[in-house]
Amino acid sequence: MAEMDITTAQLPGLKALPARKSAGQHVFEYLKLAIIRGDIAPGSRLVESRIADSIGVSRTPVREALHKLESQGFLKKLPAGGFTVLGLTSQDIDETFGIRSVLESYAARLAAENHTPAGLARLEKKIDEYQHCLELGQVEELERINTQFHELLYTLSKSPRLIKMIADLKAQIHRFRHIILSQDTMAQQSNQDHKQMVAAIRNHDADGVEKLVREHILRGKAAVLEQLAAGDAGSKKEF
């Protein structure tokens, strides 16, 4: 296995640690993003001391970041030391999307029953923002806006317990969302689905929006499975 240190060229956001965040949080966010985007491939080995030396911080914040990534299912601790980046399996995909299809479609049903005009207006604004970025080819913004749309939709359910259950899947949802929205056809289809969801919610069509959300999520599952079957896990490296 070829050894390679993380460099600021690979992760430019690690050049400076913003004062508003702890060093550990900053390292965590950038390593997580690198894993989600595939910059650090599944099977790569991450070593605490190597990362700390490369980016010029103490080992404590790196340790904090690595353990947080492990707890969220991105890394696995190795018996010989260090961590390995976990890849996605068909079982992971089936399980996560199966749970999402139940929880999020139910949240949409409740949104159809409990929404307010102001809440709908916020959803429509996100649809417009997404379309604007789509037309400009600002792919990086699509994930952020898409996430905000779904979180606003969950809020309309007015069910704190349900919102928390969905939030517990947030880390893995983010990973899948990156794969889905990286595909141009799926990126465009996503916003069309959102428009239909909002129309159904506005009409208090609980059955309709529940079905739309379930189909939306299962369509995403199919796209991720297709990518998994066709994709290359990439070369394994040591960091």
Structure description:
By secondary structure, this protein is mainly alpha-helical. It folds into 2 domains: 12-85, Winged helix-like DNA-binding domain superfamily/Winged helix DNA-binding domain (Arc Repressor Mutant, subunit A); 90-230, Up-down Bundle (Four Helix Bundle (Hemerythrin (Met), subunit A)). 68% of the residues lie in helices and 3% in strands. It has helices at 23-37, 48-55, 59-71, 90-114, 117-136, 139-156, 160-167, 170-181, 184-202, 206-230, and strands spanning 45-46, 75-77, 83-85. It has a 3-stranded antiparallel sheet with strand order 1-3-2. Helix 4 packs parallel to helix 9. It is elongated and about 55 Å long. Mean pLDDT is 86; it is low at 1-17.
Summarize the structure.
This protein is mainly α. 68% of the residues lie in helices and 3% in strands. It has helices at 23-37, 48-55, 59-71, 90-114, 117-136, 139-156, 160-167, 170-181, 184-202, 206-230, and strands spanning 45-46, 75-77, 83-85.
What class would the helix/strand composition place it in?
A: mainly alpha
Major sheet attributes: 3 strands, antiparallel
Q: What is the radius of gyration computed over CA atoms, rounded to a whole number of angstroms? A: 19 Å
Summed up, the domain count is: 2
Instruction: Write down the CATH class of the largest domain.
Output: Mainly Alpha
Mean pLDDT across the residues is 86
Spatial shape: elongated
Number of helical elements = 10
**Beta-strand percentage?**
under 5%
